[in-house]
Amino acid sequence: MSRPVYLVDGARTPFLKAEGKPGPFTPVDLAVQCGRPLLLRQGFEPQDLDLVILGCVNVIADEMNPARVAALRLGLGADMVAFTTQINCGSGMQSIDTAFRYIRDGSHEMILAGGAEALSHAPLTLRQEAVEWFGQMSQAKGPMAQAKAMTGLRAGFFKPVIGLERGLTDPITTLNMGQTAEVLAHRFDIDRKTADAYAMESHHRLARAQDQGWLDDEVMPAFDPDGTVYEADNGVRPDSDMQGLAKPKPAFERPHGKVTAGNSSQITDGASWVILASEEAVEKHDLRPLARIVDSEWAALDPAVMGLGPVLSATPLARRNGLDLDDVRLWELNEAFAAQVLACLAAWNDPEFCREVLCLDGAFGQIDRDRLNVDGGAISLGHPVGTSGNRIVLHLANAMRRLGHARGIATECIGGGLGGAMLLEAA
Amino acid sequence: MTGPVLKHLGETKLELGPATEPRHPWRRAEADGVVWLVLDCEGSSANTISRAVIEGLSDELDRLEETPPKGVVIRSAKPSGFALGADIGSFDDMAADGAAALLRQGHAVLDRLAALPCPTIAVVHGPALGAGFEIALACDRRIAIDGASFGLPEVQLGLHPGLGGTFRLPALIDPLEAMTMMLTGKSAHTRKARKLGIADEVVQERHMAAAVQAMLDAESDRSPGLKARALRFDQARALAARQMRSETRKKAPEDHYPAPHRLIDLWEEHGDDAQAMQQAEIDSFAELLGTETSKNLRRAFFLRQHLKEGARGEDGIAHVHVIGAGAMGAEIAAWAAVKGKRVTLGDVETAPLGRAIADARSVAKAAHLSDIEIRDALDRLVPDPNGYGLARADLVIEAGPETVETKRAIYDNIGPRMKSGAILATNTSSLSLDDLRDGAPEAARFAGLHFFNPVSKMQLVEVVRHAGTDDETARRLAAFCGSIDRLPVQLRDYPGFLVNRALTPYLLEAMVLMDEGVDKEVIDTAAIRFGMPMGPVALADQVGLDIGLHVGESLKAGLDKPLPDISDTLRGKVKNGELGKKTGAGFYDWSDGTPAPDADLDDAPEDLTDRLILPMLDACVECLRRDIAADPDSVDAAMIFATGFAPFRGGPLHYAKQRGAEEIAGRMRALASRHGARFEPDPGWADL
């Protein structure tokens, strides 16, 4: 069985810049903040959903299986099945993809699929030596044994391991994500200025979208228990310019690197949900879908060049569906790093790369900047890793609707050497 | 939230040992040498300690004394809790029949329980209050099921404990803690009870039988703590008693509330001698039972029951949408969410929605919710700038600006978006429902739902019908009040409804008096000495002078009767933005908290108190004559639970009857000749 699957609606929180301390919301708090208004504005009852899937990379100890915690806190009932997906930066798209396949295959009718991430809550952990010392202490019986164990204590044990830093480092190549972007910048000859110009444009586009109200249905204000209201993505710099972007030193490979804090995605907290429904559910509840999910693709490549994940996943997806570059009118390509996005564009426009790696006859083509990340991306918005894949699918659907485009692809690179892509058609 | 599996499994069943057969009032059964006495009063969902309960216990004790078992377990068969205390309805008869003799019989039974040679264990789930707690205190040990609470709230009825609480509790726990519990009437919840030493152990219901067994296996005695020993000395007690008296005086002046003062006397005099204390407790309780204060406080208790009766039934309201995140809208939303409703709070601005969330957290904290419960309450309260909740709400409460035009504009906007069958209620305090009803989407399902500020503290809600409100709407609104633990009074539309109609002349007269040169502290002190919780000037500040002015003007325009002229000072303050508590200053400076005036009244005008109080009584008589409220008890209840009208006086109409309708009407005529027509008594006095 292969049934049409619709993206009915979706909403997200504003993406909130991490300020060097835990932010006001945990991953589930964020999921609840945008899930409540999303469910309130539907014509069906929340219990009409059959499943909740949530992508989340950095799960916190109080929220094991955040999907289930979120489902219960959203009032979806004790009998709502919910599970969490994790494929690093693709987690929020993996949740949609799983939902898409379940509905397509006929086992489910309506699924809430999301992503949630609070990078500001990423834990500080103890060093392995410290953990071992604690173990010895707790096993030591009697004062003598305890005193002996105590002498093993070293001050360095308590220098915490920053979970976020470890999480953004590839465990196979030991390169951190920024370094993989440096590799791409070198291989595809992307200079600092071009990367900075790309970053500036990202900020200007997001600022315009916010001003024009294009995000009003997508971004729901979040309210913390202290009464602070977060209305919009707060990492945006509307007045971003080349002088400003030229200032920061390379963030990952000093002194000669090209990747800076200014032309990289920001570290943020945020959550996003979409509602997927079968044709039957659309008719039954009289829903007005935003788009139809046509197909999806995951690909894998060398971890050191993980930034090319979009090229490896989106190209076969397009080709399989008989689409040339011109047939795909809108692209959401997650902006992990400006150099990484530009490297993807360069690879698609490189006949040799396309022949050898993608098995095409020649170059896939040049993606026009007017079709790519039209309302900004992770450089201006931020990149809450488990959420971004969800956001780009949701925003692609909204932007296709606004601009009247028939077809679009959302795609992302994934730390560890993966790529994910999803093809949408106007509903 | 209960899923199908827990629904199937049902409520956790109470472990009643072998005592499974219902029998009134005590079930008795024995297994493994342990006797279970299970209290199961017939015809009620909660146990009260009646004469039959005590006599039944006496019969059981006969058998237990004859052949003492290995142990005795006392608990309740009612899921609602252990016992709510004495049967208050029987107090009048008891007072008439010679209370002291009856009390002595009761004491003798509990003394026998305490003297049983075998271990006795009270197992308490839910509340154990008053005489219920006193039975538990006569046992050797107490096991609290998580969620249990223990309290001696007699002081709220103008009494103190009368079945041994005054000497058994101070003997069991730190005597100062015991006195605090008895003087405030506040309950100790599970954890506190464990900490104080009231409960020997806290367990879940599922471990109760095992806990009883373990306790019987390891019975051991105990001796009083150090502090208890120190307080056996007269001087230490005298010092402590002095402190208690000064604290108690602030909240409960002896003239109005004698009971706590008698309790302190008892303890100071006999705290070192349980037997003497027991005798003195009996005599003092019997005496307090006959005081007007206790009679009127018992009346207030029944008035509350009266309002609760009117709040019974299903409200059919799962989701409430509140329009307007101002002070009132925000707190209504917060309270409803704390009490379990799903709530959306709409406002065109997001900043007040943010403040509403912060306020809701404070309300939830003040209501003693745990961190997880606070999280859940805040999850239920959804700030809704887009008004998505309108289409889902079973009840929409409009708390928008107080003008007919704005409210009508709101109704025009929301009407088409509301769910069919939903009720629209307005929280207006000053506008006529008859003026608003034409704008409402469905007049039959439109009514007033007037909360008082602060919603979390003020228990009364006026449910106001206009001529076209249907019965079912009024009933559902009253049931809604019940479901969020507020007390509804059903009223017909009238300027100021009942409570503001009655309070406005009181507030305005205070301002006239100030203009005449009487100090605000003198005015407020006079009202407080009469028994009001707060003087009229401080109350005006607390309500907000802008709101007071608005209500005053609207009442002056809407009523046939003359009201005091609105003072220029009030208008000036409102113009300057000195609005009272909310701006930090009005007539009083609120920067140091709520003012507590205590002035010398020697030079106060002779008619000061009557000028303040009688117009309030007169307005109540007028509302009764015009059938605004159904009956005098509803009026008295509303005034006590909305304004704190001197509860020890039994309510304004009860006080008026006690003092004499004719006397008051005469006094008002005299005041009218002196101060103007606003004091002319209502024609209704003749029928009171």
The assigned structural class of chain A equals: alpha+beta
Q: Count the helices of chain A. How many?
A: 15
Largest sheet of chain A: 10 strands, mixed
What helical percentage do the residues of chain B reach?
A: 40-55%
Helical percent range of chain A?
Answer: 25-40%
Q: SSE order of chain A in H/E notation?
A: EEHEHEHEEHHEHHHEEHEHEHEHHHHEE
CATH superfamily of the largest domain in chain B: 2-enoyl-CoA Hydratase, Chain A, domain 1
- The shape of chain A, in one word, is globular
Mean pLDDT level of chain B: 94
Cα gyration radius of chain A (Å): 22 Å
Total of domains of chain B: 3
**What's the architecture of the largest domain in chain B in CATH terms?**
Alpha-Beta Complex
CATH topology of the largest domain in chain B: 2-enoyl-CoA Hydratase, Chain A, domain 1
| Uncertain residue segments of chain A | none
Structural class of chain B: alpha/beta
Query: Per DSSP, what share of the residues of chain B sits in E-state strands of 2 or more residues?
Result: 5-15%
Number of helices of chain B: 29
The parts of chain B where pLDDT drops under 50 for at least 5 residues are: none
Family (chain A): Belongs to the thiolase-like superfamily. Thiolase family.
Pfam families (chain A): Thiolase_C, Thiolase_N
Organism (chain A): Cribrihabitans marinus
Protein name (chain A): Acetyl-CoA C-acetyltransferase
Describe the protein's architecture and organization.
The complex is a heterodimer of chains A (427) and B (688). Chain A has 427 residues and is an alpha+beta fold. Chain A has a domain at 128-162. Chain A has helices at 27-40, 66-73, 91-104, 128-139, 142-150, 163-167, 177-187, 192-212, 242-246, 279-284, 309-320, 338-348, 351-358, 378-381, 385-403; strands at residues 5-12, 16-17, 51-55, 82-85, 110-118, 124-125, 161-162, 222-223, 229-230, 268-278, 291-300, 330-333, 407-414, 418-426. In chain A, the strands form 3 sheets. In chain A, strands 1, 2, 3, 4, 5, 10, 11, 12, 13 and 14 form a 10-stranded mixed sheet that branches. A two-stranded antiparallel ribbon of chain A has the order 6-7. In chain A, a hairpin with a 5-residue loop joins strand 8 (222-223) and strand 9. In chain A, helix 3 packs across helix 15 (385-403) and helix 7 (177-187) packs across helix 12. Chain A is globular and about 75 Å long. The mean pLDDT of chain A is 94. The longest helix of chain B has 18 residues, at 234-251. Chain B is built from 29 helices and 17 strands. Chain B has 3 domains: 5-294, 2-enoyl-CoA Hydratase, Chain A, domain 1, CATH 3.90.226; 315-485, Rossmann fold; 499-599 and 607-687, N-(1-d-carboxylethyl)-l-norvaline Dehydrogenase, domain 2 (Orthogonal Bundle). In chain B, the strands form 3 sheets. Chain B has an 8-stranded mixed sheet. With 688 residues, chain B is an alpha/beta fold. The model of chain B has no long low-confidence stretch (mean pLDDT 94). The A-B interface holds A 32, 36-37, 40-41, 72-75, 77-79, 221, 223-229, 231 and B 1-6, 342, 344, 350-351, 353-359, 361, 374-376, 378-380, 382-386, 388-389, 392. Chain B: It is an enzyme of class 4 (lyase). Chain B: It comes from Cribrihabitans marinus.
